[in-house]
Amino acid sequence: MTPTAAKKRFFTAEQANSMLPLVRAIVGDIVQLYTDIHERRRRMEIVRQRRGETEREADVYSEETAQVEQELEKDIERLDEFVTELTELGVELKDPISGLIDFPAMMDDREVYLCWKLGEKDVAFWHELDAGFQGRQMLLENTITTEGEDEEN
Fold first, then answer.
1. Global pTM value
2. Where are the beta strands (DSSP E) in the chain?
3. Is the CB of residue 105 less than 8 Å from the CB of residue 10?
4. Distance between CA atoms of residues 85 and 5, nearest Å
5. Position 6 in a domain
6. What are the per-10-residue average pLDDT scores of the chain (153 residues)?
7. Count: domains in the chain
8. Which H or E element spans position 151?
């Protein structure tokens, strides 16, 4: 079943926390790879700016540029695979720089997000769908229900 055909999964805080070891590993890979890709792109821009200063340098930079661009493409594909892994788990990546993710959840008969950021020990915050990270609030015991939860999960 494709992710788009699958029923949306809603998490309890307990379920989200039980998934954290796997999610933490994937998000850690995303943050590291995203940072690396960004840095290599920045260096590529510097090389392109210097390119052509002399004919001889242009040839050397052309070979290096082609090799780095191929490696970047492969790493971008890997990054997309990591994001797809999260999506298939029902988790939404919000920020690849800080490792911010959301788990869809139900609270008081409305959809909200359980919010977690790389480096945090547990899923301990939630926010309204339109509130984002700035609207995070501390979870209270038994506030997240299993209503609407996908029975297969």
1. 0.78
2. 92-95, 100-107, 110-117, 125-128, 137-138
3. yes
4. 16
5. no
6. 63 96 98 95 78 56 78 96 96 96 94 96 94 88 51 39
7. 1
8. none
